[in-house]
Amino acid sequence: GTSVLSPIIPFLCVVVPAYVISQKSTDQIYENHPALYIMAFGMITAKVTNRLVVAHMTKSEMEYLDWGLIGPMCLFLNQYFNSFLPEYYVLWFCMLWCTVDLIRYCGQVCLEICDYLKIELFRIPFPPKPVMTSQGTNPPQHHHHHHHNHHSHDNKNGTHSLTNNNNSLQQQQQSAAASSQQQSINRKQTRAGSRKHNAAHQ
């Protein structure tokens, strides 16, 4: 029964003061400044809703009192002392206080979640991603990079040597072809010379 009723109590701590203060107001602040009044108590309600969500997700108990309730408390005390200050200014203070408190709370929760999950808020780290994944392997990667440079130098030297080998092979092939041509010419000449010699003897 308490688990069902527990979310109602924080909301009652917001709704009841909101209604009582609007009814007891001597300056009729709800009728004269409805947007400001709704914004102020809307910020408190948003804060209570966020705290309920966090308490439900973390399966932890939620304290009923909240820093955001200082705003309605100021309005209530001001009415108790017969509007010692103009209620319009107190209402402005209430709205600003509750807004700053809500932003502070949401920021704190977001940063705690990001810190726990090791993620960044409103940022997808595409450039640092390889650096983050290879933090432990930076020295080997660096070493590998040097090896890669050596390999590239070796490859360059290898390509030079290959081109040199190809050039030498082409020169050898050309010289072999020239020598074979020369040999065939010499054979033809020797055959022709032998035929002339035989003809002369006959």
Automatic annotation (TrEMBL):
<dbReference type="GO" id="GO:0005789">
    <property type="term" value="C:endoplasmic reticulum membrane"/>
</dbReference>
<protein>
    <submittedName>
        <fullName>Uncharacterized protein</fullName>
    </submittedName>
</protein>
<feature type="compositionally biased region" description="Polar residues">
    <location>
        <begin position="158"/>
        <end position="169"/>
    </location>
</feature>
<dbReference type="GO" id="GO:0004142">
    <property type="term" value="F:diacylglycerol cholinephosphotransferase activity"/>
</dbReference>
<keyword id="KW-0812">Transmembrane</keyword>
<comment type="similarity">
    <text>Belongs to the CDP-alcohol phosphatidyltransferase class-I family.</text>
</comment>
<feature type="compositionally biased region" description="Basic residues">
    <location>
        <begin position="141"/>
        <end position="151"/>
    </location>
</feature>
<dbReference type="InterPro" id="IPR014472">
    <property type="entry name" value="CHOPT"/>
</dbReference>
<feature type="compositionally biased region" description="Basic residues">
    <location>
        <begin position="188"/>
        <end position="202"/>
    </location>
</feature>
<feature type="region of interest" description="Disordered">
    <location>
        <begin position="132"/>
        <end position="202"/>
    </location>
</feature>
<keyword id="KW-1133">Transmembrane helix</keyword>
<feature type="transmembrane region" description="Helical">
    <location>
        <begin position="6"/>
        <end position="22"/>
    </location>
</feature>
<dbReference type="GO" id="GO:0005794">
    <property type="term" value="C:Golgi apparatus"/>
</dbReference>
<keyword id="KW-0472">Membrane</keyword>
<dbReference type="GO" id="GO:0004307">
    <property type="term" value="F:ethanolaminephosphotransferase activity"/>
</dbReference>
<feature type="compositionally biased region" description="Low complexity">
    <location>
        <begin position="170"/>
        <end position="184"/>
    </location>
</feature>
<dbReference type="GO" id="GO:0006646">
    <property type="term" value="P:phosphatidylethanolamine biosynthetic process"/>
</dbReference>
<feature type="transmembrane region" description="Helical">
    <location>
        <begin position="34"/>
        <end position="52"/>
    </location>
</feature>
